[in-house]
Amino acid sequence: MTTSGSSVNSGSSDPGGDVGSGSGSGSDGTYDLIGVGIGPFNLSLAALSDGAPGLRALFLDAKPAFSWHPGLLMEGTTLQVPFLADLVTMVDPTSPWSYLNYLREHDRMFPFFFSERFHIPRREYDHYCRWVADSLPACRFDARVTEVVWDGTAEAFAVTHRTADGAVSRVRARQLVLGVGTNPVVPEPLRPLLSAETGAPGEARVLHSADYRTHRARLAGLDDVTVVGAGQSGAEVALDLLRHQDGDGTGGPYVRWLARTAAFAPMEYSKIGLEHFTPDHIRYFRALPEEHREQLVREQWQLYKGVSAETLGEIHDELYERTIGGTAPRAALHPGVAIEEARAEGDGYVLVCRHTQQDRTFAFRTSAIVAATGYTASRPDFLEALAELVDWDDRGRYRIDGDYRVALDARVSGALYVQNAELHTHGVGAPDLTLGAWRAATILNAVAGRTVLRVPERAAWTTFGVPGTPPDTRSGAPRDTRSGPVVRP
To answer: What is the pTM of this model?
Structure first.
């Protein structure tokens, strides 16, 4: 997802041209809602709120245009969720911003139908999101948010943002939604090597997988590349490097794939297993004691950190093809391995690793390292001026209620919401696109103070926790128990 924050600019007192302009806002220049960051989750909120009666919204992002994980948009990679988990369909399939309508607008409906795809190319998902973002008047790019403060007099959040050429503006909103995404993380031993890479684009040899595509051509020409991380990104990078080898496996880099997990495990994708990505599981998870939530997230890693069975199969097929006739593969797969030391040596690097089950160490040289080691939520710098008004938990994380509202000081009459920063309070569905539209609709209803879009109360066959309420024991298909019409935005 995209990150829109930067360091707080203490000199950003100029209100700019937005306050009082009434452009898309109320007569006093105050919006009902401002979203900071335009990744898929806030873009979902923007799409669902488009045209909602009486709702004035604005969404800001620092980048010049929408982009979604550009470093991993390799040919042949697909989403890990079906196309129905687009920006809107799971709560409003009649929306003009659905993926199916995107296909219709781009004259791709027949090709899509004949391709019989359920999981769509990542590159096309990125293009779909860009089409939505470019079409929505509420989305504003080249708008880096530098500061957010609470204006008690106006009873609104004051949001200062800056363009790339230095123009400063300030807008106000009664409610704020943070969708600034997550930041790449790498193992501690690799961090000094990562920070030392200052070469021109395409020349770095220790990098996070988020930047893989930028450096892909150079990496493919090296003798030996090590990929770290057992998730989908690690698997896709390893597979892409294998495909850069010659058909007989003699050319291209030697590919080494390391992971801390005990196995290169497939992601849980059974029909019942996927019910962990439902509102039902979120409600169950939220009711657990904090220590149980922490443990459950660790235990459920295969729900959101595994590899698609298809990708694992493709890696196996590549290795099989390269060993025809008894040729040794120019690749090695090492699960259950932790990196203990990493250092530059000559024109490459030395990694010292420990096998966690055998408790034995080994070392090897490599020409480059790609850390496909995930992402984590962090507090954006622009929020520092507001930090003392946030009720942080003991670990410095947001306290978040069922509507994704952050607990704030009683002096703040406005509401602050977050997207994809609630793994600790809402469970494994937080980063998953499946629940994106449902979460956005939940926030939209809370922001509007009414049911703009009806959301299901019951979506799973599974009873999470102790049974006893009628919805848990009734027979028949899961269905929504609310009454009332759907209000189309």
So the answer is: 0.88
